Amino acid sequence: MDFELPILAPSILAADFSKLGEEIEKCNNANIRWIHCDIMDGHFVPNISYGPDIVEAAGRSTDAFLDVHLMIENPDQYIEAFVEAGANHITVHQEACPHLHRTVQNIHSHDITAGIAINPGTSLSTITPILEDIDMVLLMSVNPGFGGQSFIPSTYQRLQQLVQIREQTSTNFVIEVDGGVKPHNIQKVAQAGAEILVAGSAVFKADDVQKRIATLQNKARLGKGTVA
Ligand SMILES: O=C(CO)[C@@H](O)[C@H](O)COP(=O)(O)O
Ligand SMILES: [Fe+2]
Question: Where is a divalent metal cation annotated to bind (predicted)?
Fold first, then answer.
């Protein structure tokens, strides 16, 4: 992954799907480099979102990097479909993968990058054996399944722990935070160690999407590299 950090990744889950192209165009105009796609299956999480067709449609509206977050059971069954839809990166949940290492190998076999997401209630120790094999850790800062939830404050400490683990293990995954990221907390989230910041409702529910993106990006940059 060769991007200047931090990166703001708007989640199209909060976009108006009746005009998805226009919504993504607002992101293009604000120089957004990543678009986050939330896939929910109604089994792993209690909500259903969308599938590869919408990811493919999003890709037709932008050159941005498509960051696909699979909140689904049996992700191996669908990885190829999302790659064909244009995914540049796929994240799977530790809690949904009994053979996590094999699933990461499966993603990498398609020449794209792989991430592991962990829920707020899952210990960081569950992913330490695989850190050297992955490109991203996605720390969930809400319980997955819905946009528009409140940021869980214990995420700050988990972020700091993850940064320490990365230093101790000399690994080089990027750290993404997802859920409840807003103008009032994004600087602190970046300061605690988040490098990719997902924001759904904070971006697409704003009156002026481009202005909101600029605000979020500026605050994230202010947080970057500062000591918590
Ligand atoms: O993966 C998820 C939720 O499960 C997220 O990507 C949300 O879609 C982010 O939305 P906001 O919390 O920013 O509204
Ligand atoms: Fe997500």
Answer: 36, 38, 69, 178
